[in-house]
Structure formats: structure tokens, C-alpha cells
Design goal:
- By secondary structure, the protein is α+β, with helices and mostly antiparallel strands.
- Helix content is 30%, strand content 16%.
- The protein has 9 helices and 9 strands.
- The strands form 2 sheets. A 6-stranded antiparallel sheet has the order 1-2-3-4-6-5.
- Helix 4 runs antiparallel to helix 6 and helix 4 packs antiparallel against helix 9.
- The longest helix is centred in the middle third of the chain and has 21 residues.
- It is globular.
Length: 326
Amino acid sequence: MDQACGIENPENGLPGGERIVPEFPGRSGTAAGPDPAAAFAPAPAPLALQQGARFGGRFKLHRALGSGDEGGVWLATDERLNRPVTLKLLPETICGDPGALAELREIVRRSRELVHANIARTYELVEAEQIAAAVLEYVDGESLTQLRLERPQQIFEVNDLGAWVESLCGALEYAHGRMNLVHGGLRPDNVLVDAAGQLKLTGFGLAGRIKKWLARLGPASEATPASPPAAWPAGTDPAVGDDVYGAGAILYELLTGTAPFESGHHPERGGEKPVMPMADCRAQRGINGAPIPVAWEQTVAACLAGDPARRPQSAGELAARLAGRV
């Protein structure tokens, strides 16, 4: 796992932050300018973030929300604005690359313009003492993965998903069509549902660009069966078809309890082996449930095609096909 920028892994996970340099006691300098000797002093050690610490002189950390190949995530309070936020740390590899950071700053700037009921807000990128983190809206809720695991047989039925699918496709259509932004890393873990039942996509634009730069800057990590998108060449920008693939992978997992291509086949590695039908996957796993409509079987399979040209060409088309309107 690529360690998050300058972070010591605390007991419960990893942290995040902003573009503000904190004050450090004991540093030399004057009102007229820095101490000339500072140019020859060793670089300061990275901040060690932990529960109760402050980052950037402004964010008080409460608890780690998760960790992974893309860094780590903290729940914090923005003490300047008196609101809870999510701090998403960038991996160390990206923090040390000017090109990667420049692109992520631009993505954060553009993502700030996303204003949609089903997309968690992106506020800013903060960089301080070798740490860079995106400051995001905090969503007090559970991920689709957590909700699925609480269900009988750990699956949803098609009738359970109608409102969420409408929200997901609506958010994607808005971001793709009106804002020309792609999520690039859709999976059940970064789609949250709050206490009111409202779906929220998190990390819009960041996940795909982080994945792109990790592939460029370091050894390519082994893809997992759930890793969307299928036909996205490593180190390139994500596209609309990649989000369509990600949405299909989410639906497949919610309805079957397992990721598509769990057997180890990945379309991006060559071939067009079709995904196992969801009804067959359920039967193989001993799951008894309501019949899955033909339109859902066919549409989810199309989303997971290795060739992007064979997938629905927009989130709107995906929603229409699931509803049987196409």
C-alpha cells in the first residue's frame, strides 16, 4: 500500500488535510525574513497525525474513517468554519510529484463547482508539511457495502434499489454532461447513504486521477475483481464509460453479494468473456431471492463489457435500459 503523505499510521487508520502551513514551535526566523541558516537545516519531519491533533492549524482530527491504496481518510472539524469535514489524504508518491499535485489541484478546483443533491461537496486541497489532502463534505451515513452486509443473505433485491439507481444515474449524468467531470473510481465503498436515505457519491474526480498517477509513478498494483473500470489503460484519464462500468459493478455486487469476475478474469487483460449472469451467480452461492428482470441482467452485463463501445454510452442510457425504456 502506498503510504499517505508523511503520515504515521495511527492505531485506527490514516488521516487527511489542506493547503495551509502550520506553525512549528522553535523555528528560527525574524519579521524581516527567514533565518539564512535555515537553508542548510534538515527538512522538518512530517507531521504525525493522530486523534486529537490539529492539521494546518485549523483541522482537529477526531477519528480515522478508513484507509486503502489511495491514502487514508479522517473525520475532522474545520475550526475556522465550525463544521465537520472529511479529510482524504493523498498517497506519498503523489505528494512528491509536482505534476500529479498540479493536476489534482485543478481537479479539486473543478470539483468544487459540482452542486448536486447526490454528490458530496469538494471544498479545497490543503498542503502542509509534506502532507496533501482534499477537504470534503462529511456524510454521516453508511456505504452501500455496509448496508448490503446488514441485509438478509447480504444482498439487495432489484425492488430495493430503484431510488438509489435513479439518484446514482442522475448524479453521474449531471457531472458528465453539464460539468464534464468523471468520477473514475466508483465502487460500493464510496457511495454513501445518509440517515435520511439520500445517496451521496464521494471523492468525485479524485479517485480516478489518484489511480492514474499511482500507475504512472510506481509499479502497477494488481487489479482486484472489483477494481473498476475494466478497459481503462493504466496511467490514462478516466472516461464516461469507466463510470458506467463502475455503476454496473456496483449493481452486480449489491444483487449477488460478490464482485463481478470474482473468478479472476479481468476484461482489460484480453478477451470478452461475459460476466456470469446474476441469477446464476446467486444460485452458485446458494442465495434464494426474487427473480432478476431480464432488462437488469442484460444492462448490467453490458456495463461490464470489456469494450467501452458495447456499454451504455451515458448514465441516462443506463437508467433508461434498466427501466426497460430502451
